[in-house]
Amino acid sequence: MNDIMLKLEQLGFSSYEAKAYYALIRKYPSNGYEISKIGKIPSAKIYETLNRLKIKGAIIESATETGKYYPVPSETLLAKLKQEFTSMIQDLEKQLKQTEPLPDIDITLNFSGYETFVEKAISIINNTNISLLLSIWPDEDVLLHDAIAKAKKRGVTVIAGVFGNSTMESSYYINLDSCGISSQARLGKRLTIVIGDSKEVVICEIGENGETDGVWTTTPSIILVAKEYIKHDIWGNILIDTIGKEKFNAMCDSNEMLSYLIENS
């Protein structure tokens, strides 16, 4: 019985409707009181339920016996439901095929926790097919090493700025240790970035005690800012190595805007 009730409900009957129809299948003709007792339906709900069943074409009311009801034969009812469901499915299939896909939706996820950052970074690296842009520290370099190596073997161009020594397999690698020392001293945190195919980025700040807050996003403007940050770190480091620290510091000291940015960043 429970299985029959469940299947009737799956075909669109309410719980009371399923019970009332099944009660009539078991004993007909029956009046509302009898159906209520057999189906264990509250008397206050029985006539409302029977009316809905009549509208659905599942039962009929006797024209000669007042207040008596008959079930529509199960084979007739199921054939009707089958036809209705088949028609509905065919209509839905056409409508779904004609549905226009939405344009790409930018997604942003804020998160906390170092493990979440590592998971997101590895996911991005694994999803990358063309170019991988990294700004990471030795601690993260170790954790991401295998995923980066696999990306390199897939033919991905790996451009990495590492704030320290690295053994990663990259197409282009630069040691940003000197830049990292001043950055960490100034900010008190390690800023770490992983960008895959210019389509997604994870950015996080890692505190001295390991506390980690970050964001993963596919928003183009944020990806662009992250890319420019890494590129300028690399360009700045090469510039300093080329002209020397003394000339670079002298240039910064003599330029009011550069001095302000360094002191107030």
From TrEMBL:
In this chain the Transcription regulator TrmB C-terminal domain maps to 113-236
What sequence ranges are listed for the domain Transcription regulator TrmB N-terminal?
A: 8-74
Matching InterPro entries, A to Z? Answer: TrmB-like, Tscrpt_reg_TrmB_C, Tscrpt_reg_TrmB_N, WH-like_DNA-bd_sf
For this protein, the record's PANTHER family field holds:
HTH-TYPE TRANSCRIPTIONAL REGULATOR TRMBL2
Query: What's the protein here called?
Result: Transcriptional regulator, TrmB family
